[in-house]
Amino acid sequence: MTNNANFELAERLRAAIGSFVRRTRECAGTPSDARSETLGLLDRKGPLSAAMVAKARAVTHQSARKVLSDMEDGGLVTGEPSHRDGRERLYRLSEDGMVELRRSRSARTRWIAIQFEDILDKDDRETLAAAIVLLERIASAGSD
């Protein structure tokens, strides 16, 4: 493929993934918001400070700190002083936060599985499985 063809393919993939994610969240009743993004981030990356959350989510430190404080008040995360710097707090998912995250992920996965059954035939599902392998390869490239 030419560079232009690669760019066009990449643009179609980006747009399709964005539409897919938005549609999945909408239909599963799990809209993306600061709280859900932070729950997922803490699950993937482990205990994080407000500064680390802000950097990962590309928001201000003040915004991240407010979300984390609200989540701590709501019992979704716990915060404790950092061993490196006692002035810094490290946040991790609480049991309630993990339950909410699992519920949200399960709702999205269930909606996707239903779409596979309703829309895709066996050959389509096999093609999709092969495409997922390629997407996983692209996603992990250079992470060694």
Q: How would you describe what is shown here?
A:
It is a single chain. This protein has a domain at 33-93: Arc Repressor Mutant, subunit A. Helices cover 72% and strands 7% of the residues. The protein has helices at 3-28, 34-45, 50-57, 61-73, 95-119, 122-140, and strands at residues 77-81, 89-93. The longest helix is centred in the first third of the chain and has 26 residues, at 3-28. 12% of the residues are buried. The mean pLDDT is 94.
List the keywords.
144 residues; mainly alpha; Arc Repressor Mutant, subunit A; two-stranded antiparallel ribbon; 2 strands
Helix-strand layout with pairing:
Elements: H1 3-28, H2 34-45, H3 50-57, H4 61-73, E1 77-81, E2 89-93, H5 95-119, H6 122-140
Antiparallel strand pairs: 1-2
Helix pairs in contact: 1-5, 3-4
